[in-house]
């Protein structure tokens, strides 16, 4: 929704990593084992991948980074990269209760052909178990298994939550948006309001 509103590309590190796995490259094999264990992929691999993507022409007018940075090392690298190119960012922190995260992700299903995501509770397909767009049988991603999700949440506490404090202490613009139980349209509205508030603040500087 944000991508359609702003007309800039959505850059998801998770999608890019899964694409590497699908291609079966040597690095993809190592990435697959790491993701299936619920651990984070090495910083240097993700940093290089993000740099390559953000250097493409379609990001010239802006982009939405999703799932990055996840560690302080990645955040430091990204800040240096942004500063060297005169890029100013806004960080949107979606605050969600852990139990809700687990319920959402364990209920998530994906079409293996087109990549469309569904949730058996909050956003089910018209025909249970099958994609609305191409009729393909939906699957559970390996990284959406409950034991993997819990490991990802533990990794978040160890490595990603400190990123927010690093960004705040570094003077970066961080906006927290409550995203617990409201529908995505409401959350989207809050994100837009946070971005508008940030724009007004920047214009006063």
Average of pLDDT: 85
Largest sheet: spatial strand order: 1-2
Shape estimate? globular
The helix content is 40-55%
Strand fraction equals 5-15%
Separation of the first and last Cα atoms: 29 Å
Largest sheet descriptor: 2 strands, parallel
Low-confidence stretches: none
Number of strands: 6
Can you write the helix and strand succession as a string? HEHHHEHEHEEHEH
Number of helices: 8
Structural class: mainly alpha
Radius of gyration: 18 Å
Task: Give structural notes.
With 205 residues, this protein is mainly α. The strands form three sheets. It has a two-stranded parallel ribbon with strand order 1-2. A two-stranded parallel ribbon has the order 3-6. The chain has helices at 2-6, 13-23, 26-36, 43-54, 72-85, 98-106, 146-169, 184-204; strands at residues 10-12, 64-66, 90-95, 108-110, 117-119, 173-178.
Give the topology, please.
Elements (H helix, E strand, L loop, with lengths): L1 H5 L3 E3 H11 L2 H11 L6 H12 L9 E3 L5 H14 L4 E6 L2 H9 L1 E3 L6 E3 L26 H24 L3 E6 L5 H21 L1
Parallel strand pairs: 1-2, 3-6
Antiparallel strand pairs: 4-5
Helix pairs in contact: 2-3, 4-5, 6-7
